[in-house]
Each structure stands twice: as C-alpha cells, then as structure tokens.
Amino acid sequence: ELTEILNAFLRSLPTRERQVFICHYWYCDTIKDISRQFGFTQSKVKMMLSRTRAKLLDHLEKQEVYI
User: Fold this and answer.
1) What does the alpha-carbon distance between residue 13 and residue 56 come to, in Å, rounded to a whole number?
2) In 1-67, where does DSSP find H-type helix?
3) What is the pLDDT of residues 4-53, one digit of tens each?
4) Is the backbone of residue 29 left (phi > 0), alpha (psi -120 to 50) or beta?
5) Taken in order 21, 24, 27, 32, is the CA torsion positive or negative?
C-alpha cells in the first residue's frame, strides 16, 4: 500500500522535480553530482529537495500515513 502511495506522489511531480528527487533518494547521488547533471546550482537542488520532502509529508498525511 505504501508503495502505491509513493508511486502516486512521484507521478504527480513535475518531471525535473521527480528526477532530482529520485536521483538523490533512490540512486544516492550527491547534491554536487545532481547539480552538474541538471545544470542547477547546488542551492537550487537543495531547495528543490526540501520542497519536495515537504510535499511528500503533506501527501502522506492526507493519505493518513504517519512515519
């Protein structure tokens, strides 16, 4: 069930945001590597990840999943 909730969340993200999130949290790419790969500053990557984590928390709470 949690897998479906996470997959639905990832599908709802804009493509670049999803790619950055997956690179960091699935493939364990560093902020530096991600910034080079996408042509973003490291600050932008950090901010994207922070905002995406906040969205994920909100999504999980709406689905009544508490970690």
Assistant:
1) 10
2) 2-12, 15-25, 31-38, 42-62
3) 999 999 999 999 999 999 999 999 999 999 999 999 999 999 999 999 99
4) beta
5) positive
